[in-house]
């Protein structure tokens, strides 16, 4: 799932902290997680995280390459950092700048060429080397560390996958799978993140137990193609994500499980059964479809038709009627006609999404889509995106409104902006604002919704 997230991270253990790192995160939850991982790795070298760029000795931009604008945004931020760096230099204070994430992977040394502000470039496959790269950069070297070049994109990647987790209080992400072998024709992920790799069951279970022991109540399993996860179970049989969820549900202390992001092709029977049988698997499914037109789905290499997607949702809803469906959409893929776009609108009408992300197609160099005929003019893309987003926003509001007057379990996550408020999370991922008397952080309380906020729900202990 692609959300614009900005995260600054808390330090872990405090080594003798002399230096400060500011990490700005763009893009998906995988990046939010990676940013935490980078902060943790640098903590051993005496870096503590800061939320203020002004006091940072090291600025890391953890970038996203999924759409063109994201990369351009990075270059414009780098322009501002170059000016900041010049001011700092006059003051005799050091500020190093690093670019990490998928733009780093895809652009490599081009970033050093285009921006004189940049001291280091590190791709997602090489974060374990970040502290060493930072040390070298401090010694004056300008470094690109991306392990494999974008030109080698079809090579299989033997990647050491690391057993890390990213925590934010009572909720945590746990990466179980990275990379993607689906090769949707619009997408750079198979090139920037490499082939699908699943983490072994035992590692995942151990991490989840550790998290539970540390007070985490909700674990979100993370992967670019999370439901393609598979591994050998302790019984010697092949497990899929459904079986893994059943196993994680046995861990005492874990009260909620989620997973993201899924591909329709990989929703197998056991995963669907998990939604029926596991009360603690939250009734929320992010299942991108991208388009409602079979012609476009084929050109996108999505490997399924619109009717199959609808049927799948029907099955899931029949066994878990309260499930909220979320999706991703692309408008203006090459060759998309008015009729194709109408198919998308019809599909959305039929599904009724609780939330969704929609984007204009953005040609990514090196992907098959970029080479296709029939690129759609920008103004047509704009118009389609507007219509689609209006419909999706209406559905999202309708879903939120349907919860007013209802009561449900809410996980209290943190203090609110106002002193006497707490912020919790509904089973469907909406923030729920309650009075502090409702419970403590980490409690799961029954809340009745009294009114709607802009992007949240207001409720009271029921
Ligand atoms: N152009 C527009 N949107 C894209 N996405 C991925 N690649 C592109 C692209 N080239 C969107 C898809 C995907 C989400 C993470 O980003 O909808 O599901
Ligand atoms: Fe990209 Fe498709 Fe893989 Fe998702 S499934 S990461 S859209 S190639």
Automatic annotation (TrEMBL):
Its EC number is 2.8.4.3. Residues 401-462 form the TRAM domain. [4Fe-4S] cluster 2 binds at residues 180, 184, 187. It comes from the Bacteria. Residues 166-398 form the Radical SAM core domain. Keywords: 4Fe-4S, Cytoplasm, Iron, Iron-sulfur, Metal-binding, S-adenosyl-L-methionine, Transferase, tRNA processing. It catalyses: N(6)-dimethylallyladenosine(37) in tRNA + (sulfur carrier)-SH + AH2 + 2 S-adenosyl-L-methionine = 2-methylsulfanyl-N(6)-dimethylallyladenosine(37) in tRNA + (sulfur carrier)-H + 5'-deoxyadenosine + L-methionine + A + S-adenosyl-L-homocysteine + 2 H(+). Its cofactor is [4Fe-4S] cluster. GO terms for molecular function: 4 iron, 4 sulfur cluster binding; metal ion binding; tRNA-2-methylthio-N(6)-dimethylallyladenosine(37) synthase activity. One of its GO terms (cellular component) is cytosol. It is found in: Cytoplasm. Pfam families: Radical_SAM, TRAM, UPF0004. Binds 2 [4Fe-4S] clusters. One cluster is coordinated with 3 cysteines and an exchangeable S-adenosyl-L-methionine. It is an enzyme of class 2 (transferase). Its main location: cytoplasm. CDD domains: Radical_SAM (cd01335). Residues 19-139 form the MTTase N-terminal domain. [4Fe-4S] cluster 1 binds at residues 28, 64, 102. Monomer. Catalyzes the methylthiolation of N6-(dimethylallyl)adenosine (i(6)A), leading to the formation of 2-methylthio-N6-(dimethylallyl)adenosine (ms(2)i(6)A) at position 37 in tRNAs that read codons beginning with uridine. Belongs to the methylthiotransferase family. MiaB subfamily. HAMAP family: tRNA_metthiotr_MiaB. NCBIfam families: miaB-methiolase (TIGR01574), MiaB/RimO family radical SAM methylthiotransferase (TIGR00089). This is tRNA-2-methylthio-N(6)-dimethylallyladenosine synthase. The gene is miaB.
């Amino acid at each position: 799932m692609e959300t614009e997230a900005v995260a600054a991270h808390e330090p872990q253990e405090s080594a003798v902290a002399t230096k400060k790192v500011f990490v700005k995160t763009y893009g998906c939850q995988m990046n939010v997680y990676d940013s935490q991982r980078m902060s943790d790795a640098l903590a051993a070298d005496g870096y503590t995280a800061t939320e203020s760029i002004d006091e940072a000795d090291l600025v890391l931009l953890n970038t996203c390459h999924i759409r063109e604008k994201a990369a351009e945004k990075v270059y414009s931020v780098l322009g501002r950092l170059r000016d900041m760096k010049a001011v700092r230099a006059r003051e005799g204070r050091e500020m190093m700048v690093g670019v990490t994430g998928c733009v780093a992977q895809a652009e490599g040394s081009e970033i050093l060429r285009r921006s004189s502000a940049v001291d280091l470039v590190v791709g997602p496959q090489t974060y374990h080397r970040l502290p060493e790269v930072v040390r070298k950069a401090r010694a004056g070297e300008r470094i690109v560390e991306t392990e494999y070049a974008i030109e080698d994109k079809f090579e299989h990647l033997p990647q050491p996958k690391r057993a890390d987790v990213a925590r934010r209080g009572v909720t945590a992400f746990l990466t179980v799978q990275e990379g993607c072998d689906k090769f949707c024709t619009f997408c750079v992920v198979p090139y920037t993140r490499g082939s699908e790799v699943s983490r072994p069951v035992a590692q995942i279970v151990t991490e989840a137990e550790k998290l539970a022991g540390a007070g985490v109540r909700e674990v979100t399993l993370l992967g670019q193609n999370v439901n393609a996860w598979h591994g050998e179970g302790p019984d010697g049989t092949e497990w899929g994500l459904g079986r893994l969820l059943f196993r994680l549900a046995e861990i005492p202390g874990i009260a909620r499980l989620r997973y993201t992001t899924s591909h329709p092709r990989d929703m197998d029977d056991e995963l669907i059964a998990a939604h029926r049988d596991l009360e603690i698997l939250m009734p929320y499914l992010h299942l991108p479809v991208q388009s409602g037109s079979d012609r476009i789905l084929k050109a996108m290499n999505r490997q399924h038709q619109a009717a199959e997607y609808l049927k799948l949702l029907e099955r899931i809803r029949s066994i878990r009627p309260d499930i909220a469906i979320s999706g991703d959409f692309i408008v203006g893929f090459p060759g998309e006609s008015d009729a194709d776009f109408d198919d998308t609108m019809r599909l959305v009408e039929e599904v009724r999404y609780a939330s969704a992300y929609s984007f204009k197609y953005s040609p990514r160099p090196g992907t098959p889509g970029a080479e296709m005929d029939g690129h759609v003019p920008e103004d047509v893309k704009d118009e389609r995106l507007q219509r689609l987003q209006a419909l999706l926003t209406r559905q999202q509001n309708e879903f939120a409104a349907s919860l007013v007057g209802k009561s449900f379990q809410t996980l209290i996550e943190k203090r609110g902006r106002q002193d006497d408020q707490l912020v919790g999370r509904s089973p469907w991922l909406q923030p729920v604002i309650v009075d502090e008397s409702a419970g403590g952080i980490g409690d799961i309380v029954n809340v009745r919704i009294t009114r709607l906020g802009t992007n949240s729900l207001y409720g009271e202990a029921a």
